[in-house]
Amino acid sequence: MKRWSLFASAISLCALLAAGCSTLDERQREWIFQPSDRSWGNTAAMTAGMQDVWIDYQSTVTGQPARLHGLWLGDAPMTPDRPVMLYLHGARYNVAGSAPRIQRMHELGFSVLAIDYRGFGKSTKALPSEDSAREDARAAWDWLARKYPKQHRYIFGHSLGGAIGIDLASHVNDESGVIVESTFTSITDVVSSFKWGWLPFSALVTQRFEAINKVKTIGSPLLVVHGSNDTLINPTLGRKLYDAATGPKMFVLVEGGSHHNTNSIGEVQYKAALSQLFQMKEPAPVVAGDESAPVATPAPAPRAPTAREVRARAPRTTQAI
Q1: Domain ranges within the chain, ordered by starting residue
Q2: For the domain bounded by 10-283+294-311, which CATH number is listed?
Q3: Which end of the chain is less crowded, N or C, counting CB atoms within 10 A of the terminal residue's CB?
């Protein structure tokens, strides 16, 4: 994929000033999210076996009812030690486009709820924004808490979804851990990393996604994963995000990983990181025909510390490269 089409043309962005702030904001939202109902390649076929989930709630951002569509890949029956994950995808493609990553996270031991923000897929048709995506993520998180109150719950975000996930984690205190992949520090930093990033864009940005400020308040363990060959989001931004975190954390650089394949070629590193940072054991094999066999056997772990508890003591820092 070409460079992120956010601010794809410096000239056109500057020209928007003449059209007013409202138009500027709308264009940024279109460029950042690129909302669609499309999946990538043949990924839609890979959702076979996943269940449709519908989450209805009243939006305070728009004042209108909102409906989110999601995909659930879990196990029946759910055992108390089976962790659940909220998966937040990036720009351009709908939730089905993340089917390969959803399956891999399931293979790593999680039951997964992946959602489409408003404007994507079958969710409410609307132009998404930073505020509406924040609200959608929180609605999905609350759904998981109601549905699986006894499970350890994790947040995963890819690319733009990582910034949304960090925002969510900064506002809740019941997550057991946060995983972000190919994620950035802020939109302005992404723009600055482009060859024309010296232009004075910062003051024009309305959708800022300043994850670097919010990551400091996360008290649960944080895993930051980035591919060394990511040409869309520079790996230095992932490392900068990791450096800003104050709680238990780990940075994993996957050699040869791009913006899109880091999750697959870095699977071994993922397993090691989950074991070290989240105390999760490798999922046990399932015996064919035995529905009672456990799918994953995470080791019991104490409740992740809150941000206040982390700040009251020296952080435990781990690193894998």
Answers
A1: 10-283+294-311
A2: 3.40.50.1820
A3: C
